Amino acid sequence: MNVEIHPSWKNILNDEFEKPYFSELVAFVKNEYQHHTCYPPGKKIFNALDLCPFDKVKVVIIGQDPYHGPNQAHGLCFSVNEGISHPPSLINIFKEIQADLGTSYPRSGNLEPWAKQGVLLLNATLTVRAHQAGSHQNKGWEIFTDAIIKAISDNKEGVIFLLWGGFAKKKAKIIDAKKHHVLTSGHPSPLSANRGLWFGNQHFSLTNSLLEQAKEEAIQWSLT
Predict the structure, then answer these.
(1) Fewest 10 Å CB contacts: which of 8, 43, 117, 140?
(2) Residues that are catalytic
(3) What is the pLDDT of residues 120-135, one digit of tens each?
C-alpha cells in the first residue's frame, strides 16, 4: 500500500503498512473523509512525521486527538494553524514556557518551528471527525502511533519523551527508560493545570539541559 510519508519513516514503519489493521484503518479514514468533514486536511495527516524525520528526533511530545474545530488541526499535537486563536492547553503550554525560560508570549500557535528542530509532536490518533472529539479513536491509529514510539525507543538513544497527563503517561511502558529520558507531569488542560499539576514542571528548561549534557543543540522553544 502506498502511504505518502517522509522516506526516513517509511523504512522504519514498512512492516506496519503491511499489517491487516493498517489496511482497515486506511479504508476507514478514506470513507470518513469522503462522507464527513474531518481534520486535519488529508495532506497533513502525517505532518508530524514529515516535518521531523526519524534521524532528527530529539524530543517526543504525545497528544491524544487532533483539534476538531475548523482550521485548527494541521497534524502536530497541541499546535494550531497561523492566525487561529490559541486553545486552552496551548495557552498553558506557552505560559509555562514564559515562566520557565523568561520568554514573551507568542502571537502564533503554530509549533512547526519546534518540529523542524527535532520535536516530534505526535497525536495518538491522527484524524478526527469535525466537532466530535475522539471520533476516530480505537480504529487502529493507536496501534500505529504506539509502533512509532516503540521504533524510536528501540532504534535511538537519549530521546526525551514528555508525557503530559494520564493518557500520555501510559505510553511509558513502551519506552526503554534505561536508554531514554522520560519526563512526566499533569496535562496542560485547564482542568489539570488549575489543580497545580502542570505549572512549574519546567519541562522546557529540563529538556534543554539534557540536550546540552548530550552535546546536542537545545530547542528554541520561544516562537517570538
Answers:
(1) 43
(2) 65
(3) 999 999 999 999 999 9
